[in-house]
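Hello K.,

You asked for the raw outputs rather than the summary table, so here they are, unedited. I folded two proteins back to back in the same session to keep the settings identical. This is the first:
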Amino acid sequence: MFAAGSTSERPALAPAPRRDPGRPGAAQAIRDPAARREAILGRLAEADGPVSGDALAERFKTSRQAIVHDVAVLRAAGAPIVATVRGYLLVPRPERTAHRAVVAVRHRPADAADELLALVDLGVRVVDVVVEHPLYGELRGELHLASPADVRAWLEATAARGAHLLSELTEGIHLHTLEAPTEQALERARAVLAARGYLLGDTTT
């Protein structure tokens, strides 16, 4: 149901420009909620990066709240959609051959760019950020940063919104889930974080 092109019942969509995943493309009103959800999945599947809720609302001639509702229903049904600061992202399940690790780090907010760029420069994807909150327990933010361009876009969106980092709640202590094509890449990531004084510890998954 959720793979691009998996059903003949999905409404035909005008091709969206690959270079600008947030561009609304050809707008079309889809009144049937089920059909609109399939169309949302199709739009996310063809995008090269996150697509904002506003862009989806404009494309399908509906409200931003309707998009939030649709995405919530899709996620509850098992669609691998994550909400990032840059928009919604359809994330394929990691391949069994992918190597993953969770690293525990601590640094100042001003060092976030240095940390993230150091990781993606090694070919490591930063999947998320996790902190432990005294009231809510584990708080997780989806990042899915895999390139310097991803990091710069995330930093710009964070600054534009005046948002605070989750790690500011825990005096800089946080976790990252990392993905890499090899275990050696993860080892290099640990070494780089340690050399910068950010690494507290790690646990492979």
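The second followed immediately with the same parameters:
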Amino acid sequence: MPARPIASATVSFGLVSVPVSLYSSAESTAKVSFNWLHKECGSRLKQQYVCKQDGDLVEREDMIKGYEFAKNKYVTFTPDELKALEEQATASIEITEFVPADQVERSYLSKLYYLGPDKGGDRAYKLLSKAMQETGLAALAKYSARGKQYLVLVRPMDEGLAMEQLHYAHELRSFSDVPLGEGEVKADELKLAIQLIKQAASKEFRPENYDDDVRNRMLEQIQRKVDGEEITAAPTEEPQTQIIDLMEALKASLAEGGTSAEKKSAKSAAKRKKSKKKPKRKAS
């Protein structure tokens, strides 16, 4: 089934314009969500807003937005004023410079979109993609949409283009703020740790070997509940004796064969054979 575009835009570099369509790169179906219901009658509950000062319910038409510029002090805005604050959506991806893709740290990456040629843009799209592949460069650009301006990276992917939404520099926290402790790395422990890593290493990344076990278990249990069965928590395992000595822990891990990629692959393949359909609703 062909992918459906979620938006249209134009990639601009120099005097060249490339009309493109944006496609989501992933499905947002992994989360299992629950609704709040009235315990007595089973009806679904709706969200309401209550005034913090007098406790009264506030209807939508009596609500306004405000910005807290100081503790408990707000400046309010009308809908028109809020609209004036937003970035004008130009649907233009304006390339500002080209950089080596490996120079953009992974910590800056936020979201990934696929780009496909829009009507009339096939030749220009393929030209830009091919030129970027030949040069090994990616494009930093500004993209205005949904009232905001985004920093994005347009890069070659397969025979086409992808667009990665980036964090701005001021949005990222510095890793230097993370306390790392003062643990000492001993040579013999390092040698065993390297052995353990190599033992569990694979030559390539195979995401198909991994499933969301928690989601699958939840859906199975929910289906049992829909079918009228009772569900209970699985018995918890007795906590294992913790190995305090790091050398002993490394030796024990090596003896057990580490975390074999082959074992994971076989386990995941077996799980994928099972049905992953959503729980069926009871007939009313």
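Residues 23 and 227 are 38 Å apart (CA to CA).

Happy to rerun anything if the numbers look odd on your end.

Regards,
P.
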